[in-house]
Amino acid sequence: MTTTDVSVELDAGLAARWRDLTARLADIRRRYPDAALASSLAAEDMVLTHAIYDSGLDLEVFTLDTGRLHAETLGVLDAVRERYGREVTVYRPIAAAVDEHVAAHGAFAFYESVELRKACCQIRKVEPLKRALAGRGAWITGQRRAQSTTRGELALEEDDKTFGLYKFNPLADWSEEDVWSAIRALGIPYNPLHDQGYPSIGCEPCTRAIRPGEDLRAGRWWWESSDSKECGLHAGNRVISIAARGD
């Protein structure tokens, strides 16, 4: 499938969104040649991965293998390789740091407090992300405003003060229906856990399927309150959300 075929496969509204998306990505590449997509291998990130590879854009796609991902999530890497003939760059946590944390607090300390959960995320996700972003001018995410309360004010692009570079959220204004319509129409590979009630997928022990009517990210760190459900990769989201509410 090439970009010239998209209008045939998508309805008029979504075809326009797709053209806008590929134009946004091309503009990001023009402004920041070293920008990269940080992919969780979830549905939104697969839409972006397809848009990047299908458009022939020279943008790197990388993921963070925390050491505790579902087998189905890791299997998406094989699906990408088979479909696009491209390799997603994989960053992993520093083994010694993981071992030290587990020795001090136990393998499941993240259930005990938000602080210990965030400490685990810091080691397994945030530190590897810092290495992945080192020296870059910008990064790209698959975040959407409709995903959670912490993302309701999400901008299409922003100055990411947490990591000290520019950040693009090109799917910020996409709906869940937009994402899945594109996946189905274009035959984009995706994590099979999405078909089992997992709209948002993280580490295996920290993710469950959601129940009918629940928030899309309710299955992430489900034992915590809804306004704390960020791991540090998008720490600015909660700050923006609080400011918007006037809390």
Automatic annotation (TrEMBL):
Gene that this polypeptide is encoded by: cysH
EC number(s) stated in the UniProt entry for this protein: 1.8.4.10
Annotated keywords: Cytoplasm, Iron, Iron-sulfur, Metal-binding, Oxidoreductase
Protein name: Adenosine 5'-phosphosulfate reductase
Gene Ontology process terms (BP): cysteine biosynthetic process; hydrogen sulfide biosynthetic process; sulfate assimilation, phosphoadenylyl sulfate reduction by phosphoadenylyl-sulfate reductase (thioredoxin)
Domain Phosphoadenosine phosphosulphate reductase stretches: 36-209
Binding site for [4Fe-4S] cluster: 120-121, 203, 206
Family: Belongs to the PAPS reductase family. CysH subfamily.
